[in-house]
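Notes, Module 5: Reading structure tokens.

Key idea: the token line is not a picture. It is a compressed description, and you learn to read it the same way you learned to read a sequence, by spotting repeated patterns. We will look at two proteins. The first is printed below with its tokens.
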Amino acid sequence: MATKIGFIGLGIMGKPMVKNLLKAGHEVYAYDIVQEYIEDVTRAGAVACSSVAEIASNCSLIVTMLPNGPDVKDVVCGKDGLLEHLSAGSTIIDMSSIEPIVAQEIYATCVAKSVYMLDAPVSGGEPKAIDGTLSIMVGGDATVFNSVKHILLDMGASVVHCGDIGAGNTAKLANQIIVALNIAAVSEAFMLSTRAGVNPSLVFDAIKGGLAGSTVMNAKVPMILDGNFNPGFKVDLHIKDLLNALNTGHNVGAPLPLTVAIMEILQNVRAHGMGQNDHSAIATYYERLTGTEIRD
């Protein structure tokens, strides 16, 4: 069923998500603070908007895909934000990765304006955003979720309702911990094989079908072996997510010692000028320690 959708945030993830909505036949009104990004999606068929207010005046279903909680708060609750212009009964689907408590705060403001809200962060990075196979984890009212699930499936292969508002972002934080630690484990293991004189490409072929195999390994090892750290998901964004995880862990009393360790590695990677590179650049931490590159 074709739907009119407002979409705010057209970065690495937002642009391909908009294009998949267009391919599915939806009418998409798009806005970003970067004009170049708007022009990119308008060439694919989206309607360009010049402000958040223009999005809200044209659409009663809005998707936001923004860097962090303060950005979402500003777009939704700030001066000239969505809630100043949306009609009662409208729905906001925030697909940004933010702290669960911030999602709950924004939701409370939406409720006061009789606007529905879901938090629906995604996993899969740019490649899965492009091919429309993202994993989408959702928090919020089940009835609202069911009313928009078909739209989410136009952007993702897996759409799971995880619980009340904030549950989607809690699931995303769990995902980000596992992904970061998996990349670190892969980097550590393949440095071991390299230093031991065993071709890391052959080790990859030998173990990827066993218990150690993972989606992360399949996606990131080829990049590491090629020395290709072009961003699919940036180091800076992963640091942001892990900071949100640590804050949430402190709030709920969950011990996260491994998250602390990988956060320090990521901070080191950023300190060496790679904050805008892909998080597979975690491997460069080990390369600097040993003076050895992990290469095919």
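Here is the second protein, with the sequence above and the tokens below, as before.
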Amino acid sequence: MSLFEVTAYDREVYENELRDFLPEKMIDIHTHVWLAKLRPPKAPKPGEVKRTVTWPSLVAKDNSIEDLLETYKLMFPGKEVTPLIFSNAGREHLDVCNEYVRECAARTGVPALYYSRPEQSAEEVERHIREGGFLGVKSYLDLSPAYLPVGEIRIFDFFPHHQLAMLDKIGGIVMLHIPRNGRLKDPVNLAQILEIKQKYPKLRLIIAHIGRAYTEFDVGNAFEVLAPCTDLMFDFCANTCEYAMTRMLEAVGPRRAMFGSDLPILRMRMRRIEENNTYINLIPPGLYGDPRQDSHLREVSEEEGKRMTFFMYEEILAFKRAAKTVGLTAADIERCFYSNARELLDVARRDIYGA
């Protein structure tokens, strides 16, 4: 039995729009692997405020390394895709989930990031990186101190200075999912990104999801403010905002943009629209439970749902339109989907391990 269905409409989109657009080799710079048995669900505590949206958890209960590699075979026939992997877990399950990522990377040869906690010392994080063969770190805003309201979390609350200084020393990668309701344009986020690159110029900072700029409203003047950061990288994972992609490419060019998926959530069938300065994921009826569980979900008619493809394809189609707008060449597109990430991973490995 296949991991998930690939419909005739999916094949039509891939063959007519994507196969020839994409290079033969690709690197997916942003993926999660975990097993459900390693992070069993827990009941929420009374009064607990959820710091994340619900809808990503509806797509897959887990994503083993085998499922991840099978996803590429199903979605990108004829292409060779290598993922950068890291975990997806709360604090109480991170150790065992990091160990699973380490084992997956060792077994398959794919690169990986260590999922860090802000309370860890620099020495502890560096030891885990080196012992596990990791190329840097990923962390998340939900690991910041519990007393902070979600709208007031800052980057340094989950990526503290002592860890960033260590990553600067070794030349490691930092995959940054920025916090705060203002997303990419938030002035605190922008100030702290500038501070990171000024204080720690040798760490390799990736702004995930184009800074969560999922709508035109989220961009603001961010690219003008960040212009001094000439080596700042952006991945465009889990994003279908053509405007944000176009502004990114105009501002930083094709040498600092990287394809990422955020798998497994890009297995979702959906089409994204913007409404009242936020995003809505339009989904087929009945596929992901009650859409009222998350304000970002809205069901469409059964007929419209039959003409919905994967979030993965919608992301790449948006990038294709942005690439056409700014006049990217085939060589530029190859850089965004492969060479930029290849070079980043190679230099991080060289600097950390001398090989």
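Summary for the second protein:
- The longest helix spans residues 330-353.
- The longest strand covers residues 25-32.
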